[in-house]
Structure formats: C-alpha cells, structure tokens
Protein 1
Amino acid sequence: MTKAPMSNNKKLMIYLVCGCIGMFGFGFALVPLYNVMCKQLGINGHSSNLPEKYKRELVVDKSRNIRVEFVTQIHPGLPYDFGAITKEVTVHPGELAHAQFYAKNNSNHLIVSQAIPSISPGQGTLYFHKTECFCFTQQPLKPQTKADLPVVFFIDPALPKEIHTITLSYTLYDVTKAVLAVHPEVAKQIES
Amino acid sequence: MTTLNPEMSATINSTSHEHHHMPPRGMMRWLKTTNHKDIGTLYLWFSFIMFLIGGCMAMLIRVELFEPGKVILDPNLFNQMTTVHGLIMVFGAVMPAFTGLANWLIPLMIGAPDMALPRMNNWSFWILPFAFSILLSTLFMPGGGPNFGWTFYAPLSTHYSSDSTALFVFSIHIMGISSIMGAMNVIVTIFNLRAPGMKWMNLPLFVWTWLITAFLLIAVMPVLAGVVTMVLTDKFFGTSFFDAAGGGDPVMFQHIFWFFGHPEVYIMILPAFGIISSIIPAFSRKKLFGYSSMVYATVSIAVLSFIVWGHHMFTTGMPLFSELFFMYCTMIIAVPTGVKVFNWVATMWRGSLSFEPPMLFAIAFVILFTIGGFSGLMLAITPADFQYHNTYFVVAHFHYVLVTGAVFAIMAAAYYWLPKWTGHMYSFKLANWHFWCSVISVNVLFFPMHFLGLAGMPRRIPDYALQFANLNKIVSLGGFAFGLSQLLFFALVIKCIRGGESAPAKPWDGAEGLEWTLPSPPPYHSFTTPPEVE
Ligand SMILES: [Cu+2]
C-alpha cells in the first residue's frame, strides 16, 4: 500500500478524466449527428431552405392524389399577419403546383423575417421538393405593407404509399436583430 | 500526523498510535476534513437540509393546489416552485444522500482505511453548498428564478426565461462537477482499495450498484454540462442550437437532455437496489437469493438506460419505427428489474423474518417501487402514453419510484446503519411511528394522482378544473401529513446522535459484511490493517 496504489490511482484517474472530457465532447457531437441523421432519414420534418430543380423526366403518377395542406404560425412577439391564401391543393406526385401566402408588417418599423418550413408526417420530408419559396431568403418588409409570398413545389412519385396527406407548415421568425449584427447598414433603412 | 493527509497516515499503521487521535474540534474540522466518515456525515446532513427545503416547496405547491383558483402562489412563482423543487430533490437531496452513504459505507464494506482520493472528496462536497446557494438565491432576484421545469426544455429556458438562467446554468455546472468527482472517487476506491482476497463477485451489492452508478455518472453528467452550456450560449451568446430561426431544432434539446435524463433516473435508483439487497437478507436471516443475477441485472439495466431516452418524447412526432424501438427497449428493462424484485421476494421466502425499522422500509420499498415500475410500464406503451403524457399520471409514476423508491431506501439505510454511525441504538418506537405515518401518508399523497392523471389533469399548472377538486384536496392532506412525518425522523436522528443505549458492533444478528466487524462507532480511520477475506 505504499507506492503501487498511488500510481494505480493516478492511472485510473487519467482514464476517468479522459472519459469525462470525451462524454462532454460527445454531448456536442450529438448536434451534427442529430442533424445528419434527421436529414438522411428525413425524420424531423426539417424541410430544406434551398431550392431544388424540377426534374422534367419525372413521370406524373396520375393514379395518386395527394392532399397538401398549408399551415402558418407566427413566432410570438412578431407584429405580423401571416397566412395561407391557398389553404390546400390536391396534386398528383410528379407535377408542379403553386401555393400562395401573404405577410403583413403591422408595426411602424422595418422588420426582417425568416420563414422556417416543416413537413408532417416527417417521413414525407425527403419527397417534398420546393423549387421556389419565400423561405429561401430573409424577407424584409416595410412598415404597414403587405407582401404576397409564392411557393412552387412538387412531390416525388417515390413518396411512400401510406402517405395521402402532407402538411406544410411555416413558422415566421423575427431575424431583424441577427441581420443587423451582420449588416449594420440595414439600420439606416429601418430608420428611413 | 494531521488529518489533512489520511492517505499517508493510512500507510503508516501498526507502528504508529499517534494518528488514532480524535479529529480537531470546531468549524475547521468540517471545512478541512478529508475523512470519509466526516464527509459522509456532511453529505447526509446536507441532503437532509435540502430534503426539507425542497419539501417546503412541495408543501407550498400542495397548498396552492388545495383548491381550484389562486390560493397563495402567483402562476410564475408556482412554476418556480415546481422547477426548484425538482432540481433540489434530484441534485440536492437524493444524489448527495447516496454519495454520503457511499462515503460512509464503501471503505467500511471493502476493508479500506478511507476513500482513495480524500482531498478531492473534500472538494466534491464543499462546492455543493455554493451551487445550491446560487440556485436558491435566484428565487429572490428580479424576474425570479428558473420557472421552466427541472427539465429546462428549450425554448422555455432560452427564449422565455429570466436573466437568472445564467446562474442556474452555473449552479448545474458545479453540481455536475461535484457528482463527477464523487463518482471518480468511488471508482478509484473500489478498484484499488479492496481488502486482499476480496474478489469482484464477493463485493457487497451496495458496492457493486454504486460502482455501476459511478460509471453512469461519468458517462452522463458531462452530457448534462454540455446541454446546459448550449442553453447558456443560445440565450446569451447568439448561438442557435435549439432555435429554429437560426437553423437549430428545439426537439434536439430533448434528445440531448434525455440522453442524460434517463440514465440519471437509474443513478437515483441503483444504489437503492444495493441498500435493499443488504437489508432484506439481514432480516430474513438468509443469504441473498441470486447474488450474481443481481449483479448482471444491475449491469444490464445500466447498459439499457442509454438506448431508451425516446420514451420521454413519444408525442414529439417521432417516426413510427423509433417509437417502436424505444417502446420495446424500455419494456425490456422490466426484465432485469423483475429479476431483482423476484430475488428480494425469494430471499424473504421461508426466511425467519423480523420487522425492525430498516426491514419495514425495505419491504415498503419492494412493494411501492414495484407499483412505480408498473406505472412506468404503462407509460412505456407508446399509444397509451399519448393519453398519459404530461398529466398527473406521470407525476404519480416518478414520485412512486423516487419517494417510495429512492427516498424510502435512503431511510432504510439510515435505520440500518445509524447504530454503526453513531454508536447508539435509536428509539424503535419513534421509528415505527415514522414508518407507519410515512407509508400511509405517502400513498394518500401519490396514489390519487394516478386517477387525476387518467382523468386528464395536466402537470405544472397552478389551477385546475372543478371536477379535480376532491382528489386534489385528499392529495394535499396526504402531502402535509407526509411532510410532517419527516420531522419525526429528524427528531429520532438527533436523539440517536446525542445518546442512547450503546450499540454493539453488530446490532442486527442476521447482518453480514465487513462493516459489522468494526466497533460502533468505527474508529476515525476505518481499517488501518486490511482485514482478511476468505
Ligand atoms: Cu426515461
């Protein structure tokens, strides 16, 4: 019990401390891991914010009718009206379709907003493609003005058979502060 | 020799009598102590004080819920009470109590002179009071303390919380560091300081369960530290881990939190399994039935705990295959847990039972913990969980496993080893009063919550619909009775420390283990010469 256990203690402690640091890192590694998994499996309904090209060679599957519903939400605190003009459309997989939304800034200053799309059921995410969407960019909106916001999309004919209805939901967030942090020149626009 | 350096003093044993002196007196003894028994005592008292503080918050919650409508608490204060009650009970009462028991008992049980890393031991205790002072002080700050539930889901803790969240995060960090240091000490002690001849499969089960708990702590406390750090940077430094507007995902918070959270619930119950596995054989006067199956069951519960976190998130819109995966994995845990319950019952079967206070609490544990386990199984069924989710049924479930599970086991442990710790027998009469008051009131308190939950009463809401009024009144009355009963325990412990009939080295005739070979109370340095184990 003189020297030997002390050095054993030290050795074991080194392993344990490394284990702790490793697990702390693992906690953070879960973030990219989660995002990659969700993206690959298309399971958290995280729809893309990037445009996708319509593939002309797609065969429109006339035998299937998919109901697409549109839902909107405003992040609390954002003085906007935001809604879907097109409440729902029925499409065949493979064909291009349009939907119309609107947003109105009810405040007396310029606000930059960002819409985040989300698909339900999550399993449909991988098959729902937007070629045009107001969610691809941040939308500045002048005080008391209204904007029409279009979406063009198509559904991949490979959509699993058990899915008959897809809901596309947009949540509108206020990103003015974040934009100002990167582009301070926008502040002038807001004041004017 | 000074007591500052017991790892040295322990090495110079039979030749020197000097270090058998009594510890220095006064505050400094406790502040500077590196003695495992002193630190164990500090942990246990700290935990008891936290139990009373968290208990007072529970009483306030039950007063508010005594009648529909506002009684005494504003909704925001009510939310702070439920949040801080949970945090205090989990991190302040149950976990430090188990660490205290580990400190007191593991060296005695494995024939060691002290814990392996005594100075770290001192630190791991003394940072705890700071952590909880910080946490409690936030309640008195403008904007109030944490009000987002002990699970601090984003965006509640990021978007909608008060500025004191920074202090909440800081205090969680300190608690985490404290439990990690405690866990490391336990592992190093068990690996390196076992008495010669003590093989792995001879370890007392309390030592085994604590060893596995310590590994769980090291695996998941850093993940908790990570997730609170993300909350901190999301709230104050503009990151968007959990903010959808910035590309994050609030559901990811739940994944990371429950990756910590589910092993955490086993951290709070595995040492309890060890305690019960020591007490039931002692008062059945039989060897524990199925020792090795107990060890394997504990290991498999610990391993499975890492792949079941999703059962807390069935209603988040997970894909069907993950719901099924988490449902089946969760239900598989019932198998090793069932093995344990079976073994305890089989130990009692045809034993010559006697019903001293520790045994009463142990039997109550087996029955009531099993009820908590059953409601857990109900919650594990995905479609059923859609109904039970976020209702009082969940509250009933985790209070059965934590109060009549973990807390009852801690009380059983206190009654079992109190004569060893203090050198005095305690009053059985008072202990029996404490037991019967507790066991009746705790069921009046928690059992009706099942029905409230099934009828649809949501948790964490300061008000409720009129049809829930009668049951809530009963629950509150049970709560007050249970709270008051714990004062009996406090009185009993004080009385026992002050004096009483002196306890023999082994006050329970059926007890087994090295701790009973030492006099009661044991000498300041436990085993200065390692005992021989056949
Ligand atoms: Cu769980």
Protein 2
Amino acid sequence: MKRIALLGMPNTGKSTFFNRLTGAGARVGNWPGITVDLLSAKILVAGGMVEVVDLPGVYNLHGFSEDEQVVRRFLETQPVNLLVLVLNASQLDRQLALALQARQLGVPLLVLLNMADESRNLGIRIDVKGLERTLACPVRLMAAKFGTQFSEVKQTLQDALRDHPELTRVDPQAFQQDHRIEEALDRLVSESVHAPVQLPASLTDRLDRIMLHPWLGIPLFFAVLFLLFQAVYGLGTPLQDGMEWLLAHLKSAWLDPLLLHLPVWLRSFIGEGLYDGLGTVLTFMPVIALFFLAMAIVEDSGYLARIAFLADALMSRLGLDGRAFVMQLMGFGCNVPAIMGTRIMRSRGLRALTMLVIPFSLCSARLQVFLFITTAVFSPTLAPLALLALYALSILFALLTAFVWRGRYPSHEPLLLELPPYRLPTLRFLGFESWRATRQFIQGAGGYIVAGVVLVWFLTHYPFDVVPASPDTLAGRLADFLAPVFSPIGLDNLMAIALLFGFVAKEIVIGALAVIYSASPEQLSAILADRLDGVQAMSFLLFTLIYTPCLSTIAVIRQESKDWRLTLLAVAWPLALAWTVSFLFVQAARALGY
Amino acid sequence: MRIVIVLACSIVPKTLSEVLPGTAATIVALHVGQEYGRRMAGLGLRPGVSVRVIRISPLRGPLQVRAGHTDLILRRSDAARIEVRAVA
Ligand SMILES: Nc1nc2c(ncn2[C@@H]2O[C@H](COP(=O)(O)OP(=O)(O)OP(=O)(O)O)[C@@H](O)[C@H]2O)c(=O)[nH]1
C-alpha cells in the first residue's frame, strides 16, 4: 500500500488538512518503537488505497524534543511515497526553514501553503512558481479550513503518487547533518515572499488589548472558565442522568424479563456485573463528548495559548502550567475527561504530574456522597462547614501532590509558544475531535472499566449462597482481613465494604451502603446518624475524598499515559495519603476527647 | 556622571527581558544551548532578527513578543538569555 506522511510545524493546520482529506474514519495506529498516538487513515486515491499518517508538529528535523524524535524515528523506519509538508503561508519568513530541511531527506516532497486566506488579508504575496523552482517540488496555496483550492491539491497529490509509485526511505545521513540554512532561508524568503513592511493592525491585536489586559485578563479568564464549566457539566450532567435513567429502564423492561429463567448468580452476573459495567462506560460518553467539544473551541480559537500567558506566573512556581490549571478546574466536574484533556500538553513529565494531581479535584460524583453523609450525620450548621473543609482540602492535597512528585516528573519544556491570531472554529472539525475522543475512551478504557466492575461484583457477591455485600462474601472477608488497617481510622468492616464499592464509582457508594445495611435510602440517613459519630463520619469522608476517585479515572490514566508505573502510583499514593490523613484526623480528634 | 551612566544603562537594553513593552530590539545572540536555540530559531527568534515586545504578563509573567509575522510568548528568565542591541 502507498503511504503519505504529513509533516509541519505546530499550529499550521496539519490536522485540519488531515481531517479534510480523510474524513472521520481516522484511527490511532501502532508503529514500531513509537509510543505516542499517531492518527492515520486509509483513503482511496485514483483507485488505489493510500495510507495517510499525521505526524506531530515539529519546529525542525534535528532537535531532540519528544515530538521531534517521534518524527525522526517514524521517517527512519517507515518508507513513504510522498512527504506532504504543510506550512502557514503567513509565516513563511520562518516556516520555509522546514521546507529547506525536508528537501534534504531525499523523499518526494509536496509543499502546501495553508491559511491562504490569512496571508492574503495581511497583504502577503507569494511567488509560488519561484518556490517550486528553488525547492524542486510542487507547491500549492490552499486554505484547509474552508476547502479553498482543495480539489487542485488533491489532483496534485494524485499526480505525485502516480509519479512516485515506489516507497522510498529517507536518506539516513540527512538527520545527522544539520546544515546552517539561515542564509538559504533569508534568500528564499526575500526572493519569493513579498510582505508589506508594516502589517496592518489586526482584530487580534484589538481583542488582545482586552483579553490580555493586565487587570482585566485574569477576571476574564475566570469568566471563560466558568462558562466552559457550565457548558460542559450544566449540559453534560443531565445527559448523564438521562443515560442512567435510560439504562435502568432498559434493564427492568428488557433485560430482567430475558434473564428470568437463568440461575440467580448468572442473572446477577449479567445484570449487575456486565450490564452495569457497560453502563458505567456509556454514562461517561456525554461529558467526554461535550468536554472535548469545549476544549477544541478553546484550543482552536487561540485562547489556550493566552491562558498560558495569563496563568504562567502563578503556575510555573508550582511546577505546573496554565493548561494544567484549566484541567485541574475542569476536574471538579469530572476527573475522567480532565485527564484525557491533558493531551494538549506536549511535555511528558508535566502531563504525568498533572494526571497525578487531577484526581484530587472533588468531582460531582464525590459531591453526591458528601452531601448525603454530611446532611445525615452533621447538624445543619456543621454540615456546610464540613463540605467547605472538604473542598479546601481537595485543593490542598492537589498542591501537596504537585509539590511532592514534581521532582520525579520534571518538565524540561520551556514555555515557548506561538500566540496565534484569534480564529473562529468550524463545527465540522469540532465534531471530529469530540467524536474521536469519545471513541478512544471506549476503545482504550472501556474494557478495563467493565473488567473492574465485574471484579468488584464478584468480590461482593461470592459465594453466591450468601447475602450480597454481607460480611460473608469475599469482600466481607477481605474487610475482615483488613480490619487492622481500617480500625485505626475509625471505620468498621461494613464501611470498608462500601469503600470497596466506591472504587468502582463514587456515585454508587450511597446505594452500596443501603444494600450493606439492607435499608432503603430513606432509612439509611437515620442508620448512618445512629451508627457513626462525627469523627467516624469525617474520617470516612476524608478517605473518600482522597483515595482513588473511580475505576474509570484509573483506566484513562493508563490509556493516556501508557505507563503502568504511573497508573500504579496514581492508585497507591492517594491510598497511602487517604489512610494517613484519616488516621491523623481520628487520632487527633480522639486525643482531644471527641 | 555616574547617574548619567546608570540612566544610559537602563535605557539601552542588553537582553530581551530588558526591552520595554512597545519597543523593538535586534537579536545579537541566543545564550540558551543548542536544543532550545533550535526551537527558538524555528519560531523565528534568531540573530539578526528584530523583535518587538508587545506586552508583559502581570506578576513578572511571560513576555509577548513579535518576530517577523509570528507572535510568541516566553518566560522572562528565558528572555534574559537572549542578547539584543537597540535597533539602529
Ligand atoms: N484561517 C485559517 N485557519 C486555519 C486554516 N487551516 C487551519 N486553520 C486553523 O488553524 C488552527 C490550527 O489548526 P490545526 O489543524 O489544529 O493545526 P495543527 O498543525 O494540526 O496543529 P497541532 O495540532 O498543534 O499540530 C485551528 O484553529 C484551525 O481552525 C486555514 O486554512 N485558514
């Protein structure tokens, strides 16, 4: 099969072009020796299948950043028929450097000058024929976002593939020699790019005077964040509830009657293990889809780089950056999409650290548990205070975690970013992004989530002849065994079983407690108030706040990092911290006579 | 006499971090190591290029600079390692 690789600097519209060329069918492919996800798709060109691969954006071919090494490794190991270089037509003064480097590779090249609309508006004139002569390859102007000149580009692509039917490898020497190309670049630019001396003051400049204003910038940033949060969760949470309702309805109307004649344990396995596992995966879909829609808007509009500008002064002191801050805040709605959202960070260390920190954000699922228990156990004046304390602690533990682990996951990435002009995102590509993220979640994390739910189902239901979730089940015996661990933090075996359920998802903790105490949710309040004193309740809340938010969070940490050690740490560190904090709290409270 | 010299120093920037917002300077050299220097060059920061500082983020945050047709942000500590001279 023929193969095309897309190369370009970051932010040149490579992905936009890739999406337009390949449609929504792209997948993440596996390539030998390459650990990051590369999108690829197969398309039909002149009756033959062609594989198109989207490489990460790079500033040059000789550097050693992670992305640059990925690109180099790919080109060294995978022969291609054609290398398509996407450049931003309004920034040719620096981007042509990459064309000069790519020319050395010795593979057939096609240069696409993207964003022709912007360069035209800036009054930049480009001598395309002159560029073709100097670079000795076809060059085309286009605007991938609007599809301008797209048919011509496709025709050129087709011709180039016809002229180069054989796969070629890059010249292995090419990456070693880092020629000084400054002079050649200056000559090429002055020959073929004609720009007005003074670029016209743009709409972006005027907008930035407000958006990046020394005093207004930060309040506006928080306003934008608030809007985002509302848009994602204000819309997403009801959808999530609707999905849950639908699933419960389908279960009682269709599944239960179907299973009627099966043995009890098998019925329970299908209905409460498999079905609920799949349900857990499905209920995350609306928030993930909306989240990625919102994030794609922030990124595509150019605001994300501005957030880095505004928040860096504070965040860099914590070893994090402005984008980490956005994800942390979005985590207060739900940790799962926030962790997936860290993919906008290019530095591995920073990304890993952020994935460790996000699970401390008190998500809406935990809030449900906290609301229920605080109102059940505490007095009406104390309950809101307890809740407030939990929020404050959530932030404190996030900061503590960043502080403790930043040495192990350092970020060498200096902050050096392009501040692109403000752009209006197009719906079509936003849809692509959101659909792709949702599909990746199902494929990458879905299996683990279902397996985890089934495992907890098994623990709390085996042996099948005893009451589920009772002390006689495996879970009960496990809790028995772990009693020396839980009694110092003031929790009995039944609460420990509830915590085991909470590992699957926090929103089922209350339901689990009801099952464990065999009470209706209404009776549960009274039982909890009766069984737990304030200290025990607070200890339970603290533990719930800090330990693993849910199985799905762990599954996406693994999916996104592809790193089992980090995943293990993301389980072990919060567990250790949760136990220590609860222990210190209980012992201190008891010592003070409570 | 000394006062005059001190004043002159504060007017003529030696590094990009000293360039005042709204003014421009020409890059003389990058003292940032090869790897980071490559990246800067990729974004248009290289010797001989004229850069304008557009604004500086509050609390000693990053600088927004314009080099050629590209706007970039970089930290003050990194800007301090870019040697500049006043535009002729
Ligand atoms: N005006 C204009 N904007 C475009 C065009 N093509 C892409 N864009 C915008 O440019 C921005 C960057 O596009 P992407 O496709 O994400 O660029 P990329 O090169 O893949 O960037 P990375 O994902 O950082 O590698 C987006 O906001 C696009 O909407 C174009 O032809 N004209």
